[in-house]
Every structure is written in structure tokens, then in C-alpha cells.
Amino acid sequence: MLARSWRITAPAPTHASVLYRRVHDDNGAGPSRPRPASKRRARDSSRELRRLLPTLHDGVYGSYGGLMREIEKNGFDEDRLSSLDRHVILHHIIRRSKRGGPLAIQAAAEFMKGDATIRDRTMSVICYKKNHTVRKVKKVPIQAISSTQQPSIEDQQPLQIPPRLAEVLVLLETMQRRHLTRPKTLYDLVIRQAVAEDRPDIAAKAFVGLVEDWIIEGRIAEGADPEDFYRGGGPPRHKPKSTPLHQLWFSGVRTWRWPGEALSPHDRLDLWHPQHHALDERLRGFPMPVPTSPPSLVPHPTSDLLELILESLDMDPTTVHPRQYAATMRALAILANTILSRTLPINNIPPLLAMFSKANMYPLVYPESFTEEPRSNAWAYTANTQAHVALVSLMLSPPNYSQAAEMTEKLSRRAQEKKKEEGPAQYMLGPLSWRSCLVLIKYAAAQLKQPSMVTRVVAYMRSTFRDWSPTALNVFFRSSNRSGQYGYAQNADDALFGGTTIGRRGSSKDDLAAMPNMDSVIALIKHLQSTEQIDRLVKLTYALHPFLQSVRGENGDLRPEVHPLPEYVALVEALGSVGKVNLAQRVFGLALHAESSLVGQFRRENPGTREPQEVYLPLPIFTAMIRMFGAEAGRGRGENKQRRGWFVPAEDVHLSRTAAAESMILRIHKRVMTRYRAGAGQEGRIVPDERYLNAVIRGMRFRWHLEAEDAARPLPAQAKADLEKFLGNVAELGLTTPPGLVSKFKTGTIEGPTVFETTAPFGPAAPLPTSPELVKMALAAVEEERQAMLEDEFEELVTVPDTSERRRALQH
């Protein structure tokens, strides 16, 4: 009825000639031209394609080639498909799977080989990480190898790129070649897929390529000349222009070669450059599209992309296949290029610098293009050296903070004017943060054993951060002690404790540098122990624990304070090593009291919860006590048989010095085993190790007749009973008893070693030594400055003006 009514009331149709005259008269133009037959055929073809695609069976969607073959069987020629047809196919793939997936990646890559383009939004959907199932490749099981064992170059060569990763790389390279806008999701997909395939080197290449594209477009938009670049955004081979902007961008990039340096900085950048194509190839599309700031072709390189790569690195060569370890080291070397060329536009670089510092110097890893080892200066071509050179370059030439801050402020104002939500653009390596400086100090002092190399870093920190946090001085303090450079340790000592009651010198208004924390105190204790400043160590002990100076019956209100447990450990170790047995015993008693207080506090605050190991004293403090009494047992031989100045229980007062010390060792060992049994099944419980047991064995060497002159003597009954208990404890711990102890117990003679073989150092594993040539090269660079800098000049660098608040706290 509605349709019939509409036909009745509708006006009569107007003749075409009338419409023509009306349009011509009103608008002054004739009718639109008829559409060409080619466009009509294209639209008809796309309609037929839309009808065909839903009718295809699921099997043809397994690969792009299979899908196109099926389409050709239905009368469509792939070579004659229009851009509209290709978009119909691509969008059908996306809708059908409710996501892009690998098939959409293949289709997009094939379409872009011609003249077709894809909208940015569509490309973001195709590459979105939730649309792709990235499965981690199973690690190749290997037999453990030595960290210094050098595999062959063939073993380190990568395998063929997996198909799924190759498809994504083809898409990325096609878009780079055609200068199309690449979304961040594309780079995220490439990096995730490469990491999943155990190819962090490919992920690093993609990330560095992103950095270079960002740098090139951004700097050209800011007024740079393409002639100022070399191969993908690197520094020029000639001297850059004298404009402030160009000097800022290339500040810290060295162009000359140090004495003894096998490769120039530019040779090193070329060696590890991800793509060796000419710069004019990358700039072929400029000035179309017009370079913008911030760049429009690529997204901003962000720290989350870099973290994906860093988290996948396998830094231990003894746990992975040589091929996987080589991929890790090559990734680090490629990423190091962004530090050496000062182009990394990311502020959060401490994780990257920390990875560089963890890089082992062996086994050596060469670039993929190498088929044999270089005949001379092989170390210079390795990825290992490249990673360490990046750190050395920052130590020798920290980025200029004031100029960088000025440039950042300028770009920030511009971003605010344009109302950019992403903030100011950045086209260079930013100034070093406090954490980055700490990484460099730890690396120079602890691994290179050359605290003098951070002279410029210390000066940079002094001028940039003004007030010192004690953290950096603590690192410098500890590292200088370990490397035996006590002059630098004394400078840090004065900077931390100058003007205090525990300082090396008298109180002075200009001495105070920073509020020392507990790490500072522990570092000072170890410094006094290393340099055998016994009087100052004793003075420090009484200053930290005034309760030790109290006399029974006086100062009735004085109670022992609870300090952090690591402080007690450091004090006991230091006092025991210098022979202050009585004072070490008293500090050990305070440590037990502090432990009891911490345990009680935890139980009150967390009823029904088992105490963590952090509220209990660790094993090293018991090891230190046993070593101290072991030394006392040795001093009690000969004419020094009388015990002097230290406490024993009433039942042991009549014993000689050696026997009393051995009795104390057995008492401490009994306490340790009791703690071990009480913490059974608890995570982080105290577990006696070989080093602790060796301390017990050496302390009991006289009672158990383990010395050479007593080896043939039979054991007394009580000594044999003590040895039997000890052997039972070793078996309880699940360790293999030294054969010499077993034979001594059974036959009275020593047959084999009497102590455990300890292969691992006490505490965390020590870093592998760095290349001697690298150290030589770095030292040559700072030799003049190192010779010219006196201790008082360095002291001036680490001294910061005092504040009244800090002074009152220290004096209190």
C-alpha cells in the first residue's frame, strides 16, 4: 500500500532536456561527464570479488599464494587486479580473522611492492600485537662450556631468517623504500617477532633503523643539510658546520683515532651499521614528503621498544648455544652505534649502559660478514669491544648538559605552541642522568680498576647535580678500595665524613659534602680494614655504638640501639681481621640483640607469618667469628698460651688460649647448625657452605691434628668425638666430606685434602676481565689529565657546599 501510494502522489518525471537546461541556466555548467568504461569495469570487478571471497573454503586462507591461486581459478588475473581489488582482498582478510595475522602481513607486503598504499589506521590494525601470536622458540640444549672457550665462526653464524619474521621484515623494508608512514605497531611487531625467534640482532637493526630515520627527518626539518650526514644519519667525515645546532648534535662524537686504536670511530660505526645503503637512497623521497619536526614518517623511538630487546639478551655464554650468544653480542654492538654517534633520543639509557658493562670480553664475536678471524688486532673488530668502547666514550666525553637543556627548552616551547601531546622532539643523546653516571663509575672503578677514568664524569656530576647523593661516593669508595687505589678512597672518605666525629681529619666548615648513609658507613669500615687504620676503626665502632662505652652501674638509661644488620657484619669482619677480638665479641653480642629485636617486631606486626631471612643475621658474620677464633688458636701456640682480653664462658676459663678459641668455634658452629635446622624448608634460610666449613676446619686444625707436624699423632677421645659430629653435619648438609678428614677419623692418618675445594668467590660472581688493549687505549686518552690532576683537585671536585640542615644532622 505504501509503495502504491508513493507512486500515486509522486510528481511526474522531468524530461532530461529540462534538467539539462535547468542545471545549465542556474549554475552555468553542463551535466557531469559519463564515467569511463575502465572505472565501471573496476567497480564491477570489485563487486564480483566481494561476492566471491566469502564463498571460498577455509583451506585457501592458509597462505597468500594459495588464496591468489584460488582467486585466479575464478576468473581474476592477479597481474590485472586494480588497487581497489587489492584493498577488497586485504580488508576481507582482516574482517574474516577479526584481526590481521600473518596472512594480512603477506598481503600488505605484496600490495606495496607496486603502487598501492595502505591507510595508517589499517596498517596499525594489521600490526597490532594482540593480532599476532608470537611464540617463543625453544632454547637449543647445549653442554656447558667455559666462558673463555672460543667457538668457531661457523658456530656463531646465524641460521636462515624464519619465514614469519622474514614476512614482517619485507613489509618494513618496502615501506622504508617507498617512504610510507610506518606506525609504531609495525616496529613493535618486528621486534617482538625477532626476539621470539632468538634474533635480538635483527630486533636491534630494526630499532637502530628507526632511530636513524627519526634523526634524519627531524634534523633536516630543523635546518640540517643532508651533506652533514653519513650513511643513515651518522656523523660526517668532514668537520660539521660551525652553527650552534650542528655543534650540539655532533658534540662528543670523536673523529680522530687514539694511539694504539686499530679502528677509527667512523670505521667502527660502519662495521656495525645495520644497513649499508647510501644516504641519497634514504632521502630519495625528500622533500616529498616534506620533513617535519617531529617526524611524520616514523614514530618516536621509545624506551619500551628498547626494553623488549634488552630483556631478551642472553649474557652468559655458558648457558646458551654459541649462535644465540653471538646474536646477543651483535645486538649490543649495533645498539652501541647510537651511543657512539650520540643519536639515541631516549632519556632512560641506564639499562642499556648496564648491559654494556655486563658484556664479557670472551668468547669473541665478530660481525656476520666475517668468514675468518682477522690476522691482526682481532679484538678491535669484536662486538665485545664495541660495547665497552661505548661506555668509554661517555666517560671521556659526557654530553653537554647546558646546551642540551637549552635545546630541550626550545623544542618544548615549540611543542606547546603546536599543542603536541607527545612533548618536545629530541634528535640527539640527552644529558647523562644520575643513574647513568653511577653505571659509569661502577664500570670504571670496579671492572676496569681505574677510578681515575671517571674524572670527567665526576666533574660533570659536580656541575650538573650540585648536591651530591652519597650513592656515587659509596660506589667510588668501595671500588677504590678493591682496586687498591687508596688515595681516591681517602678523597671519597673526606667528601663523605669530613667534619664529622668519625672523619679522617678534624672538623672544618668546608669539609661536609653529603649526608652519609649506611652504605657509606659500611664502605668506610671496609676502607679502614683494608688500610689497617685500627685506631680509627675502634673510634668508629664506639661512635656508632655508644652503648659499648658504658660501664655497668653507670648510665642506666643507655640502651643498645638497633642498627641495620649489614653494619654489624662489616664491623665484626673488620675488627676480627685486625685482632680486636674482645670488641668484635661485644659487637657480635649487639648483633644478636638487634636480631632478636627485629624478629620480635616482625612477629608483632605480622602475626602468623614466618619471618624472612632478612631479619636474621647472615652466614658471613658467623664465618668471620670462626676465622677470628681460628687466628687466636694459632696465636696461642708456643709462649703465648694465656688468653688475653676476650671473653669465654665460666666453664672454659681454665683452658689455654688455643683450647678456649677452639671451644668458641664449636659453640658458634653449634649455633649455626641449630639455625640451619630451624629454617628447614624456608626460602633464603642460612645454609653453611664450603667456605664456612673450611673456616671451621682450619680453626680446629690443632685439636684434630691436621698440621703436618701432628698428622701422625692419634686423636684424643674428645677430639675424635668432635670430629665425628662435624662429619655428621657435613653429611646432613648434603656435601661430600674431604677424604683427608675421613681418613683421619678412621685411621688416624691424613690421606688426601682436608678442606673443601671452593671454585666460586664468596658473594656475587666477579666480572670477567676486560680486554687489556681496551684498557690501554682508554688510559692513553686520559693520561695527560690523570697526571695533571692532584689529589686536592679531585677533592675539590667531590666537595659540595654545606647546608645548615645537613650540618645540624651530622653534628647531632
Task: Please render the helix and strand layout as text.
Elements lengths: L1 H8 L6 H12 L9 H16 L11 H10 L9 H15 L3 H12 L7 H8 L25 H4 L6 H15 L6 H13 L3 H22 L22 H6 L15 H7 L7 H4 L20 H9 L10 H19 L9 H9 L24 H14 L4 H17 L16 H14 L7 H11 L4 H14 L2 H12 L20 H14 L2 H11 L20 H13 L3 H25 L13 H17 L21 H22 L11 H10 L17 H16 L6 H9 L24 H17 L2 H7 L6 H8 L1
Quaternary status: single chain
Main sheet characteristics? none
Shape: elongated
The fraction of residues in strands falls at under 5%
Secondary structure: number of strands: 0
Rounded to the nearest angstrom, the distance between the terminal CA atoms is 100 Å
**Radius of gyration, Cα only, in angstroms?**
37 Å
> What are the low-pLDDT stretches, counting only 5+ consecutive residues below 50?
1-27, 418-424, 506-514, 759-812
Mean pLDDT across every amino acid position: 74
- Structural class category: mainly alpha
- Give the fraction of residues assigned to helices: 40-55%
Tally of DSSP helical segments: 35
Write structural notes for this entry:
- The protein is built from 35 helices and no strands.
- It has 812 residues and is an all-alpha fold.
- The chain has a domain at 197-432.
- Helix 20 packs antiparallel against helix 21 and helix 23 (486-497) runs antiparallel to helix 24 (518-531).
- The termini are far apart.
- Residues 22-46 are annotated as: Disordered.
